[in-house]
Design goal:
The chain is an all-alpha fold and about 80 residues long. The chain contains five helices and no strands. Helix 2 runs antiparallel to helix 3 (about 25-35), helix 3 runs parallel beside helix 5 and helix 4 runs antiparallel to helix 5 (about 60-80).
Length: about 80
Amino acid sequence: MRVYEVDNFANAGDIEGLLAALCDDDEHIREVAADALGAFPDEQVEEALREVKFNDPVQTVREHAARSHGRVVERLKVEKGTMV
């Protein structure tokens, strides 16, 4: 997979494509996918990013996933009206 494909998934709102990119062999693709997924407040995205932030073998990928996970969690809270 190429970065432009991940960008196309993000621009199209293709969560499934981004989740697939999160499993790519190339760590840079996984980083870009994790960053892009931070824009999608979705339960499936939250679960996938949580998994990656703890289990990806590459530290930088885990860091990207952790930042995006935080953004997704906060946006989900806002959508559910649980922000204080």
